[in-house]
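Forum: Protein Structure Q&A
Topic: Joint prediction for protein chains with partners

I've read a bunch of threads here and the consensus seems to be that you should model interacting components together rather than docking separate models afterwards. I'd like to see that in practice. Below is the full input, 784 residues plus whatever partners are listed. Could one of the regulars post the assembled result?
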Amino acid sequence: MAPKAEILVCGGTSCYSSGGPDIYKNLIEELKRKELEEKVKLTQTGCFGFCEKGPVVVIYCEKEPNGIFYCQVKPEDSERILKEHIINGEIIDDLLYEDPETGAKIPGHEDMGFYKYQQRIALKNCGLIQPYKIKEYIARDGYRALGEALSHMTSKEVIEIVKTSKIRGRGGGGFPTGLKWELTAKAKGSPKYVICNADEGDPGAFMDRSILEGDPHSVIEGLAIAAYAIGAEQGYVYVRAEYPLAVERLEQAIKDARELNLLGEDIFETGFKFDLEIRVGAGAFVCGEETALMQSVQGERGDPRFKPPYPANKGLWGQPTVINNVETLANIPGIILNGGEWFSHIGTEESTGTKVFALAGDIHNTGLIEVPMGTTLREVVFELGGGIPNKKEFKAAQTGGPSGGCIPKEHLDILMDYDSLIEVGSMMGSGGLIIMDEDTCMVDVARFYLDFTQDEACGKCTPGRVGTKRLLEMLNKIVEGEAEPNILEKLEALSNQVKKSSLCGLGQSAPNPILSTLQYFRDEYEAHVFEKRCPAGVCEALLDYVIDEEKCKACGLCAEKCPAATIEGDKEEGYTINSEACKSCGICEEECPFEAITKG
Amino acid sequence: MATTEEKINTEQTGNEIEGHEIEDEAIDDVKLTEEELKELEKIIEENKGQRGVLINVLHKAQKILGYLPREIQVRVARGLDIPFSKVYSVVSFYSLFSTNPRGKYTIEVCTGTACYVKGAEDILKKLKNELEIEPGETTDDKLFTLETTRCVGACGMAPVVIIGDDAHGRLTVEDVPKLLEQYQ
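Posted by a regular:
Agreed with the consensus. Here's the joint model:
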């Protein structure tokens, strides 16, 4: 008897860590107890993307073919779900998604703003199939593209299709993938290698992780197709060690693919031979840079080197090598099956297809979204993201991680594609999209990123090693209120020098967060430097001491102890601090018996 | 400056020049038990002769004691037939390799952008106060090692702290003491 209903439980990182496995376990037990095992199919899937509302459980049955989407499910809800939904056929209202604007309950994910505008190609299987089961992937056209390519296409034809699709690298640079393949195919030397760059280091980006965890076979298939196109027999997936679940699922997927002879010798009986190995990183951001990554795959220090020669000519162990990002590879099977034309018609003229963004920060709906290139930032933030929580104002969107920049309010209507983002001084990067509200200090944000790049700089070239350090020192001075008046000019000049003279992409892009915040939020820098004031109220050293009227008992101790006599008032009216005269010594804060004096 | 040079000199004495041919006397900081030695030899044996396996071997070797003391590094160098200097250069390059003993649980505070925006700094401050250690240090009872980590990609549940193998998300400063109690 075919199952009457299917229950999908999200097994993505976020849901997995907030109770997902217990929900799954409870559902198994409850199904057994209620003797429903044959009627209900239970699946633990990859990431649904809607991490904010996790753990997520979706139920499909005859009555609701589009599925009912339950949010923030708790393990103890398992019994209710089976009893009320499966047996009684009633939708459980309080587990449904509530529209933050209208308060209306929305049962189907297709009606939610978060999903309504999405178009899923790279994520098409995430949240639908069981990542551990290769047969579920095959049932969704998995490995058909590889079969097509091997049986009916020459490697040149495969490259031609990818070129027609105009897909560009999803890892940051946006280099045309087809061209990369063609250059490597034509390069002299054998053996050749393919590498999947899964060293997703940009803080705030987690799409590669979700693809590896939710649909690992799509990456394996993409790599095998790339290998066929360029004439490689060996591939590597370089995954960061911070993603243990991704490594585990990928290992299993590779094993399963070998068992079905989708990896190994004579694949699809065409004589094509290809195998894969996983290399796990060890915590170095610079290894996301391709020349450093290859060093690390070789088991060495991840020191980048000067380009050219490019990996297409001299890559892993000095041999021609293609390095593609996870999301790029996950797009490849679809392109082979549907044709390059199909893909090139999605998105904009120069940025084709879709892009996965990781929405995070001060936004209602954090999670993963996949939208056609050229969707506006406004649509992403307010339609899909549901806007800014707590009735705060949108201040900036940060894209491209530590290599990117901040996009201010006046550019909310910018198209999210490679070239438009560069035009406003940011970049696509791998697709991290951090939304910041009015309470964010942009100088502090720049300092945060420089702290990151300075720490992660490998030390090989001087601009990367010393330049980033000096930039960070200047920013620290600014947020501490110790900056000299001409510091902004110096900051800008050094930023441009580091950008021009660094050896690899890490150093060349490290000043971008400074330059873009200087461009759009210069007044905030000036307030820090000249007025010693942090307009957003974040930089602690620049905050004034204030007395909380509610906590203050008007005892007068602070006024008595203040060495600069800047606290005025009396026991009747209460006290206030004259912030202009205040020396910020902090004695009043220490002396106050009611903790009524704080910086704020 | 002088102290740094001194340090490098003492650390490399004998090994740099001699390459991997190190006398047994050189290995004196930690004694591995027979069982641990066997485990290490097994890891080396499985990878010997293959290209580019050093990082993988070090990952596995670090699981034995939770860190990579000099003895393990020297034995890896000798076993894989590569200079000790190269092993040390890789160990010191990557932040996930440690040359100091670790606590039973490592507490990793995610310092990714999403966590930062949602108050990871305050969580870190609270942890420092509660445990009375700085990042990179281990508590006296050897229970916790405090670390900051790069983005763990769980931005949907920011701010995130990972203790051992468990991820804890959407934390507030008030949650911290209770969180630690679970492991004490």
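Residues 462-480 of chain A form the longest helix (19 residues).
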